[in-house]
Amino acid sequence: MADRIIRMLAKDAPVKASVITARDLVERARQIHLTLPTATAALGRTLMAASMMGNQLKEEDGSITLRVKGDGPLGAITVVSDSAGNVRGYVQDPAVDLPLKAPGKLDVGSAVGAGSLTVIKDLNLKEPYVGTIELLSGEIADDIAAYFSESEQIPTACALGVLVDTDQSIACAGGYLIQLLPGAEEEVISAIERGVMEVGPVTEALRTGIGPRELLERVLRDFELEAVEESDVEYRCYCSRERVTRALISMGREELRSLIEEQGRAELTCQFCDKVYDYSREELEELLASL
Predict the structure, then answer these.
(1) pLDDT value at residue 82
(2) Cα–Cα distance between 211 and 213 in angstroms, integer?
(3) What structural domains and CATH numbers belong to the chain?
(4) Looking at residue 118, what is its pLDDT?
(5) Rounded CA gap, 275 and 241, in Å?
(6) 236 or 290: whose pLDDT is higher?
(7) List the disulfide bonds (predicted).
(8) Burial, 251: exposed, middle or buried (Cβ in 10 Å; 0-12, 13-18, 19+)?
(9) Do 50 and 79 form a contact (C-beta atoms < 8 A)?
(10) pLDDT at residue 125, as a whole number
């Protein structure tokens, strides 16, 4: 089954929700960056959060960037989603793998550490919207919920899970965002909290084979839900030789000349997909002559 996001509304309450299943997406990221389990879980959770947030954008060419900067061994996590929910990202140290904090529980919080979460929304305006909060736990889902509450004043429940198999591949991955719209009363909040508690960890539910719609229906079982949009999503990088060439040109004449004199060639690697772009001395000299 393809990775998918489903957006739903409650017909009988001011509640909107998104749910994602993303096993292939997270597995692709793991293969590209050669992440070990703890780093895999941290990057995977961030990818899924960004995917659901990007999918909520109304601007067709908009994008969302999440930057998690903690003082833990993982370093920074950077993830970008387009407005369809297709994502790309990387973690500063993919080789981080800490001891389990409990049976079957990866210690993402300790790997991330204390720091900040920054959300950048590019809505094709003159300036992007930028919101930053202190990390609540480093577990990613808690921090996403805190961001919405603090920066956008939207009460949010967020769950994200990545189950890593014994061979380090992804057994399942998924999550949800449930948000209250204006006018939500206390009994609505209580019903959502009950559903979250009863379903428990996302990966435990997904490993039984249920799909994204059923997962959300279980959590919001006290509400009448209506699907408003379904879309397939994937790990997608937009790098190209043309873009890399433009980046080299943007260095300017002096830096480009220094690069030719000192190295005689250039090898640039995309941080998101690890694709390598090689430029010979002749190609660099042609770029310099074109400036």
Answers:
(1) 96
(2) 6
(3) 4-232 (3.55.30.10), 241-290 (3.90.1280.10)
(4) 98
(5) 10
(6) 236
(7) 237-239, 270-273
(8) middle
(9) yes
(10) 84
CA–CA separation, 121 and 119 (whole Å): 6
Q: Is 71 within 8 Å of 115 (Cβ atoms)?
A: yes
User: Tell me, what's the pLDDT at 1?
Assistant: 66
CA dihedral for 19, 207, 196, 116, sign (positive or negative): negative
Given its phi and psi angles, is residue 223 left (phi above 0), alpha (psi -120 to 50 degrees) or beta? beta
- Report the phi/psi class of residue 136: left, alpha or beta, with left for phi > 0 and alpha for psi in -120 to 50: alpha
Find, among 101, 106, 135, the residue nearest to 118 by Cα. 135
Residue 17 contacts residue 7 (beta carbons within 8 Å): yes
As a whole number of angstroms, the distance between CA 74 and CA 65 comes to 18
Check whether 117 has a pLDDT greater than 70.
yes
Structure confidence at residue 142 (pLDDT): 96
Strand 4-10: give its sheet, edge to edge.
Answer: 156-164, 170-180, 15-21, 4-10, 225-232
For helices 241-249 and 281-290, what crossing angle results, to 10°? 60
- Integer Cα distance of 82 and 85 in angstroms: 5
Q: Single out the residue of 212, 261, 268, 265 nearest to residue 240, CA to CA.
A: 268
pLDDT for residue 104: 83
Task: Please report the pLDDT score of residue 59 as a whole number.
Answer: 86
